[in-house]
# Entry
Amino acid sequence: MESKSHWEKVYNTKDPDSVSWYAPHLETSLNLIHQAAADKNAAIIDIGGGEATLVDDLLLGGYKDISVLDISQKAIDVARARIGSEESKVHWYCADITQATLPQNYFDVWHDRAVFHFLTEDEQRMKYVEQVMRSVKHGGHVIVSTFGPEGPEKCSGLDVVRYDAENLHGQFGKTFKLLSSSTEVHKTPMGTTQQFLYCFCRME
Ligand SMILES: C[S@@+](CC[C@H](N)C(=O)[O-])C[C@H]1O[C@@H](n2cnc3c(N)ncnc32)[C@H](O)[C@@H]1O
# Structure
């Protein structure tokens, strides 16, 4: 619950475009999701979607089965209000990803930008990977983005774990085939830069 109160406070006190992870559009995420899901009926879940516009862009792109999960109710409320009437097409989950109840063997695409790196304990990471294995279909795709080796050591005042592609892929294990990885430099609204790593995997 400590984590939940932290994130509720963040979203209750900051504007959507003033948080360090803000980007007008998550271009790299969108490109990878398009690669993973040519079919607009693909079931896509954005883990820790926060107030990001990814869900808006997926709706615009014609995707019909979108889910967004976040630990913060405030972030979900802001995203729903921004989307307007289309928000009822999205499945919203307010939950901690390490404890959430998700449909089994259901998702074609699992996307996470900047959540996994907050899991600093082995047990949390194990629970996260179990969630992926339970809820993503065999042959489904997993896109996880964390801070890279040169990224910050903290985000939003919380410790993070930084990864290179080998280490991040290693957290998930052999069931996940690493299709590609890349780093990108994110420019924060404060004018600083942060290195992100993306890993794009298929669950075998
Ligand atoms: C750094 S923000 C990234 C938000 C969004 N993915 C983006 O790229 O703009 C991290 C998000 O993860 C959420 N979060 C943190 N820990 C979580 C957890 N254990 N389960 C679910 N969501 C979590 C936070 O509320 C926040 O919205």
User: Anything to note?
Assistant: The beta strands are 43-47, 65-70, 90-94, 107-113, 136-147, 154-155, 158-159, 176-187, 193-203. The first strand starts at residue 43 and ends at 47.
